[in-house]
């Protein structure tokens, strides 16, 4: 279990997280909800190790690999969809990239193009698949379905459910139905 | 206006100037210069001098590009290195090129590598500063992604660093190659290394052969233009390859 105790994070004068206590149970999905600016993404960045808390402790991350589908796609624009996914895979697993992307609804034409030529929805799928196929114990999904149409949303919910089974997931979302569909324990930040 | 018309206009101005001066040794006409150039093109003298200067200025330029990329990478990685190198690069850029030429000529055998060292010193700070800026302007989001997914150094270099820095390197190289020719030939005119373009220009000046001076100038301009465009084409090809080659054939399986 990943535990956060008394976690505080400030940016200058602004206190984004103030003495937060939170448990992320192993093998379960925890959904963080709350209004914009409530510190959801900051919390994700702390779990990812991209920021250090100003006070408090985060335990349970030692020796565990944490990956993410960031709120922004953060793709290498010159690489194809397959290239972006292969980038994070071990050499022995590179063949899985195309399979996982097809599973997420990308056709063969979209797989080979540089991602800068893909639509917003296609890019989002690439970013999500990259996080789902990476070898990791903990997966952070920051608004992973943002910008997807209804059909793609439903399909990717299934993909996320299958690919994260048995792993610890921190989901950041504004959609309670999304959290429910993934069987998440909901935590609301104010 | 069409480039050919612009060229014709300036050739006419030059011709009018030559008529006004009335002395071919003071200001040779375009016709005299063209005639002399055609004569030189058929001689071993021209090609020998071109080979001599091209080799030395080219070596100086390439060494500066390699060194500039290396020092920029070191400066980006270490604040101490950056603080040590920044004033040194600023000093090299600000110092008159003639100071370096004189200092080199004071060394035994200094004229031999003069053009190479002068070109090197002209190009190095440009490449260093521009590439360092390119490294600093890399997409922070992608760097965080690389850290989170624990990309190996080589994968990050191929997928993030090189594509980000290459346009900066291309811009620095295009500016640098022109400067390398200007400074390199100026160094040759002062240091007179045997068999160089600069030595030929100096001899022409001694004998008041302004047609020869201008013909050699045309040769230098043509060489500068040709090398700049060749380099630009190579770098554009590299950038296009990075932009279009399917990754399966390239970097990420490393």
Order of helices and strands of chain B: HHHHHHHHHH
How far apart are the termini of chain B?
52 Å
Assembly type of the shown chains? heterodimer
Number of helices of chain A: 7
Q: What structural class do you assign from the helix and strand content of chain A? A: alpha/beta
Strand content of chain B: under 5%
Strand order of the largest sheet of chain A: 5-6-7-3-8
Domains counted in the coordinates of chain B: how many? 1
Stretches with pLDDT under 50, minimum 5 residues of chain B: 245-254
Structural class of chain B, please?
mainly alpha
Overview of this protein structure:
The complex is a heterodimer of chains A (190) and B (254). With 190 residues, chain A is α/β, with parallel strands linked by helices. In chain A, helix 3 (96-103) crosses helix 5 and helix 5 (120-133) packs parallel to helix 6 (150-163). Helix content of chain A is 33%, strand content 26%. In chain A, strands 5-6-7-3-8 form a 5-stranded parallel beta sheet, sandwiched between helices. Chain A has helices spanning 40-48, 81-86, 96-103, 108-112, 120-133, 150-163, 176-181; strands at residues 2-11, 14-24, 29-33, 55-59, 66-69, 138-142, 168-172, 185-188. Chain B has one domain: Orthogonal Bundle (MetI-like fold), CATH 1.10.3720. In chain B, helix 3 packs antiparallel against helix 4 and helix 6 (114-136) packs antiparallel against helix 8.
């Amino acid at each position: 279990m990943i535990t956060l105790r008394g976690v505080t994070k400030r940016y200058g004068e602004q206190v984004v997280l103030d003495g937060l206590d939170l448990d992320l149970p192993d093998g379960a999905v925890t959904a963080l909800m709350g209004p914009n600016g409530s510190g959801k993404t900051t919390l994700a960045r702390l779990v990812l190790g991209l920021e250090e808390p100003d006070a408090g402790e985060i335990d349970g991350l030692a020796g565990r690999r944490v990956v993410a589908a960031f709120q922004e796609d953060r793709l290498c624009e010159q690489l194809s969809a397959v290239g972006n996914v292969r980038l994070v895979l071990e050499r022995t697993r590179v063949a899985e990239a195309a399979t996982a992307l097809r599973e997420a609804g990308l056709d063969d034409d979209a797989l080979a193009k540089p991602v800068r030529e893909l639509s917003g929805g296609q890019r989002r799928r690439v970013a999500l698949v990259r996080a789902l196929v990476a070898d990791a114990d903990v997966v952070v999904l920051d608004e992973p379905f943002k910008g997807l149409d209804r059909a793609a949303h439903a399909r990717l919910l299934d993909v996320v459910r299958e690919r994260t089974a048995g792993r610890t997931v921190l989901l950041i979302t504004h959609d309670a139905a999304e959290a429910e569909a993934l069987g998440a324990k909901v935590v609301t930040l104010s | 206006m069409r480039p050919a018309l612009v060229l014709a206009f300036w050739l006419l101005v030059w011709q009018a100037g030559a008529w006004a001066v009335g002395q071919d040794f003071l200001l040779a006409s375009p016709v005299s210069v063209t005639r002399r150039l055609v004569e030189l093109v058929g001689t071993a003298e021209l090609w020998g001098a071109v080979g001599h200067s091209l080799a030395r200025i080219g070596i100086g330029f390439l060494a500066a590009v390699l060194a500039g990329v290396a020092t920029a990478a070191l400066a980006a990685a270490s604040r101490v290195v950056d603080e040590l190198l920044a004033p040194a690069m600023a000093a090299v850029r600000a110092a008159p090129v003639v100071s370096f030429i004189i200092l080199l000529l004071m060394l035994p055998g200094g004229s031999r590598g003069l053009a190479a060292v002068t070109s090197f010193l002209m190009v190095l700070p440009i490449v260093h500063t521009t590439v360092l800026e390119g490294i600093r302007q890399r997409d922070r989001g992608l760097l965080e992604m690389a850290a989170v997914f624990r990309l190996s150094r080589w994968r990050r270099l191929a997928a993030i660093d090189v594509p980000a820095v290459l346009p900066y390197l291309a811009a620095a190289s295009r500016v640098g190659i022109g400067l390398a020719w200007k400074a390199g030939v100026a160094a040759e005119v002062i240091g007179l290394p045997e068999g160089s373009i600069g030595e030929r220009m100096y001899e022409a000046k001694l004998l008041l052969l302004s047609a020869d001076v201008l013909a050699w100038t045309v040769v230098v301009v043509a060489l500068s233009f040709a090398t700049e465009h060749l380099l630009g084409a190579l770098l554009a090809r590299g950038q296009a390859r990075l932009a279009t080659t399917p990754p399966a054939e390239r970097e990420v399986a490393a």
